[in-house]
Structure formats: structure tokens, C-alpha cells
Amino acid sequence: MANKKKIVLINPWICDFAAYDFWLKPVGLLYVGSVLLHYGFDVALIDLLNRHDPKISFFVKPKPDKQYGTGKFHTVEIAKPAQLSFVPRKYKRYGAVEEFFIHELRRIGKPDAFFVTSSMTYWWPGVRQTIELIKRIFPEVPVVLGGIYARIYPDHARLHSGADIVYSVDLSQLNGLLHELFQETFDDDLSDWFERFDPAYELYDRLGYLVFFTSLGCVYNCSYCLTPKLYGKWVHRSHERMLQMIQRYVHTFNVKDVVFFDDAALIDKENHFKPFLRKLVEANLGVRYHLPNGIHARLVDEELARLLKEANFVTIKLGYETSGPLQNKTGGKVQDEDILRAAQLLRSVGFTSKEIQAYVMVNMPGQTEQDVVNAIETCRKAGISISLNEYTPIPNTRDWFELTNSGILPENVDPLLLNNTVLPYWWKAGMDVSTVQKLKDLAHGRVSIPRS
Questions:
Q1: Residue 65 forms beta bridges with which residues?
Q2: What is the pTM of this model?
Q3: The domain containing residue 121 runs over which residues?
Q4: Nearest of 149, 169, 19 to residue 414 by alpha carbon
Q5: Is the N or the C terminus of the chain less surrounded, counting Cβ atoms within 10 Å?
């Protein structure tokens, strides 16, 4: 590179009715940072959601961790977008205070470009507010928006985010973006970026936990999920590379919690996750491991359960979704008996009911209140805890096409209205707010399961 260019990576604020730091790290953005460092760019990072950044304490007292590095964000109440005026809840901005952001921007100095990431599509107001502040200080510097919102809603992002460029493809196409920005050619083949590069955690000063992916993609085709379309075929990293990466960053940051956010960690488990677990057991790094993204209960066996325990996993979430006929309609990934069998195997090696949790969705299309009640009852029978998650339709999934083709959802619906907190207030095809709350109370044990 003739003149070393500076790029600042930004993890933006969240604007929502509720948000919590359940191991939120911009791993995709960090992979981009790794490639940029490989190419010789000067790279800096401002993560507005890093509660553990020591510089934040100069501006506001940081909130303490709750468990395993998770915790509450600093919040500021802000005006609700007009589209959400009917929702009787306070709307907030989550993350670092504005003074911290301004200070960091000025400390780093004027770069050649900003790369802003995005996650939940209905968090786009936080993306816009982040970009607005960047533009206030550096109006001439190009801002590129990538991430999940940019990929799922590229046209909406071009209209509403304030970004100069919306990058709506995966990392393998990064060379084209860099050529567009800097008129320089970068011809390194990035098709195998996931195996070659590690997320650039070295851009942080301090972390409370580490988040990794051992694999990308999924072989299933659940009606509500976009993962197979976003990532293509399922691929996994080599076990040796994974272990080297974990050892490196655990040593650098002295963290006690390592989180794996795979969508399908147990696919080809004999050649992937089991050998990887054996390496973790052998390495004995003295950390706690977590699987919070819902593993496939049908693929849990006795050896896997034992290896998870020996490796010191303390959070295992099983993908359950729902009881009843919808199990087959959504993809047939799991049945009630799979949850019961997986829970029994995990409990038999010493996992507690708090360490094993099943994801149960509420407000799915066609789901009845009794379906959710039955799912909660199954979890109670299995002796595991419950994570009740409110459903939201995602564009280009099978659910989305059914909902828009039938007229239940308008195709051009603002992603703000698809926030799972907002949906029960207006979506006539699903459950209302009171029903959802009743099921939450049931899942959390505040009320008892009704007996017929």
C-alpha cells in the first residue's frame, strides 16, 4: 500500500425498549479488522457496547457484571421513533455515553474511512444515531455500513442509515469494497477467510469475555431462520487453529469466560466438535465455556455430554422452539423426546438445571398458547430451565414468504415494527401482549402450569 490508510471500526449503539449484554461482541467486524491488518491498514476500533472498556470510567461509572461477564448497559432514555409511538414503554439508547464516543473519535483522529457494523435489523436507529455523530465530526470521511441489518435490508439501510456505502455481501468480497474506496488492488483470495483469519481482539484494551465461532452456517432449513442463506454451506475451523486462537486471547486478556456462538456446532460432531472438546479438555485453560445459541438436542450423545462437562462448559442451551405440530412444519429439527433424552444425558454427567436451558419460542405463526404451555411442561419434566424468546419474522425465510404472500405482513414493513417486543402490540395473526406476558410468567415460575 503506497500510503498507509487508516480505518476506524465502529460497533454502534443499540436503540430499543430493552437490551442486555448477553456476550455481545461484533465478531464479524473483528474478522474484517483482521483482514485489514493483514493488508497493512492502520486499524482502530470503537466498540460502544464494550462495557469493560477502562476508558468509559472517565465518563460514567461502569455497571458491574452480573454473571460470567454479562451485565447491564449504560442507558439514556430517548424519544421513540414515530412508528413506535403506540408502544407504552420507554425507548432507550444502550451503550457508552456520547461524550466518550466524541472523545474517542477525536483521540483517534481523522481516518480514511469508517466501517460500521450492524446486528438486529430493528436496532437500525442506533446505527443511524452512531453514523450521525460520526458525520458531525468528520463530515467528509466515507462511512461504510455492513453487518446483518445491511445484508437483510440493504435498500432500507441506503435510505435510512446515513451511510455512504452499504456493504451487503459477505467478507469474501471485501477486496472490491477496498478498491472502490481507495482505488488500489487487493488480490488476496478471501474465500477461505474463516479458516485463515482470527477475529482481531487485539484491537481492544480490555474485555470481560471472548466470543468465537467454531463453525459457520447450518445444514438445516428451519422456516424461521436465515442462517443457511447468509452463510452458504456449513464449514468449520481446524481444531488446532481454534485452540491456538483461544489460548492466545485468553492469555492476553486474562478472561474467565469463553463463548461459542455457532448456529450448528454439533453437525459432523465426530469430526468437528468432539475432537475440539478433547483439545479443550487437554489444554485445561482454567476458563468457563458457554454454548448460548441453541445446540441440536437430537445430536447430543453420552460421550458429547461427558466431554462438555470435562471441558468445563457451564452454559448449554438446547434449541427447542415449540411443542406440537409446528415442530415438523418449521423443519423437523427436534421433537419433545429429543429434549427429554438430551437433558437426561446432560444431567447424568453432572450438569444442573440452571446450566441446561431450552429455547422456547412464543408468538410463532400458527402457534397456539397450549403449544407453548406444553413445551414449558416438557422442560419442567426434563429438569431444565427455560429461555422464552419472542418470535420475529425475518425477510427471505420461508415464514416471511408465507406471511407476505398471505397478506399477514406487508412486504415493505419497517423493521422497527418487527421488533419482537413490538410485534404483539399490532400483529393480529399472533398472540397479544397479555398472552405473551402470561406465558413469560409461566416460564419463569411466577405462575403454575394450568391443569385441565
A1: 71
A2: 0.95
A3: 6-182
A4: 149
A5: C
What is the C-alpha separation between 28 and 186, in angstroms, rounded?
A: 20
Element (H, E) at 148: helix 148-152
Residues 144 and 244 in one domain: no
Q: What's the CA gap between 375 and 136, in Å, rounded?
A: 50
Among 48, 53, 43, smallest CA distance to 9 is for: 43
Q: What is the mean pLDDT of each run of 10 residues along the chain (452 residues)?
A: 85 97 97 97 98 92 92 96 96 97 96 97 97 98 98 96 96 95 91 95 97 94 88 91 97 97 95 97 97 95 98 96 84 88 97 95 91 93 93 92 90 92 89 92 78 54
Contact between residue 374 and residue 323 where contact means Cβ atoms under 8 Å apart: yes
CB atoms < 10 A from the CB of 313, how many?
A: 21
Which residues on adjacent β-strands are paired with residue 125? none
Domain limit, last residue, from 124, 147, 182: 182
Beta strands in 48-152, from DSSP E residues, in sequence order:
75-77, 92-94, 113-116, 143-145
Considering the domain architecture, whether residues 230 and 299 belong to the same structural domain is answered as yes
Distant-in-sequence, close-in-space partners of 158: CB < 8 Å, separation ≥ 6: 166
CA geometry: angle 182, 200, 172, nearest 5 deg: 50
Q: Provide the phi-psi class of 115: left if phi over 0, else alpha when psi is between -120 and 50, else beta.
A: beta
Q: Is residue 402, in this structure, part of any structural domain at all? A: yes
